[in-house]
């Protein structure tokens, strides 16, 4: 396959996955038809089936792609050692994706709320070891007295809940914000507020 064809394939797959995020978020898995996604991405339905033969295959690809995004957001745990820098970077990455990929966050939340019926054991294998590595780093910070004694999993849960709220419950956020989406300045303030609250809760200054 030529480089040009490879690039076309990559571009089409990315376009389909992003479009599918939106449709799945708005209609749910059961309420979505492949024709809905084809219309969203403005591709013939036959083209869609060329890349993804079934709706389940496409849905699974969307979820696994999102899992990889979440993992990329957490690379700071491996790159840095300073807890302030690691957690500030992680929160900003998560908040940014809540703003740029809100549909993806909603699809992920719906899958998890229903007990991961599609991902199943794939989620267990992918999420468990990944999360335990992050917990181990937080536990080491506690042991080194670099942060206050905290339950590592609770820190992760709090970050996930706080940051993904801006995507999963954006309608609620907009209502409180005079029925308007947060401006760039307001969202930056939100990142600062979430970061400050979490860091101060473990004994660090932002």
TrEMBL record:
Annotated ranges, domain HTH tetR-type: 10-70
GO biological process terms, semicolon-separated: negative regulation of DNA-templated transcription
Alphabetized Gene3D superfamilies for the sequence: Homeodomain-like (1.10.10.60), Tetracycline Repressor, domain 2 (1.10.357.10)
Top-rank taxon: Bacteria
Keywords annotated in UniProt: DNA-binding
GO molecular function per UniProt: DNA-binding transcription factor activity; transcription cis-regulatory region binding
UniProt-listed InterPro entries: Homeodomain-like_sf (IPR009057), HTH-type_TetR-like_transc_reg (IPR050109), HTH_TetR (IPR001647), Tet_transcr_reg_TetR-rel_C_sf (IPR036271), Tscrpt_reg_YcdC_C (IPR013573)
DNA-binding region(s) in UniProt: 33-52
Name this protein carries in UniProt: TetR family transcriptional regulator
Origin species: Pseudomonas helleri
Lineage of the species this protein comes from: Bacteria, Pseudomonadati, Pseudomonadota, Gammaproteobacteria, Pseudomonadales
């Amino acid at each position: 396959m030529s480089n040009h064809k490879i690039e076309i394939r990559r571009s089409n797959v990315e376009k389909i996955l992003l479009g599918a995020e939106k449709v799945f978020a708005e209609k749910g898995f059961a309420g979505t038809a492949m024709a809905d996604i084809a219309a969203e991405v403005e591709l013939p339905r036959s083209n869609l089936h060329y890349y993804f033969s079934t709706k389940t295959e496409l849905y699974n690809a969307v979820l696994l792609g999102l899992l990889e995004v979440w993992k990329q957001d957490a690379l700071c745990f491996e790159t840095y050692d300073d807890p302030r820098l690691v957690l500030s970077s992680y929160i900003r990455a998560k908040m940014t994706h809540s703003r740029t990929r809100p549909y993806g966050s909603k699809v992920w939340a719906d899958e998890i709320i229903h007990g991961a019926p599609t991902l199943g054991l794939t989620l267990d294998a992918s999420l468990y070891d990944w999360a335990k590595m992050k917990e181990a780093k937080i536990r080491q910070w506690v042991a080194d007295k670099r942060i206050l004694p905290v339950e590592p999993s609770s820190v992760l849960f709090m970050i996930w809940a706080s940051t993904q709220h801006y995507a999963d419950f954006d309608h609620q956020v907009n209502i409180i914000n005079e029925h308007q989406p947060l401006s760039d300045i307001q969202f930056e303030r939100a990142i600062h507020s979430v970061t400050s609250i979490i860091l101060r809760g473990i004994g660090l200054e932002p």
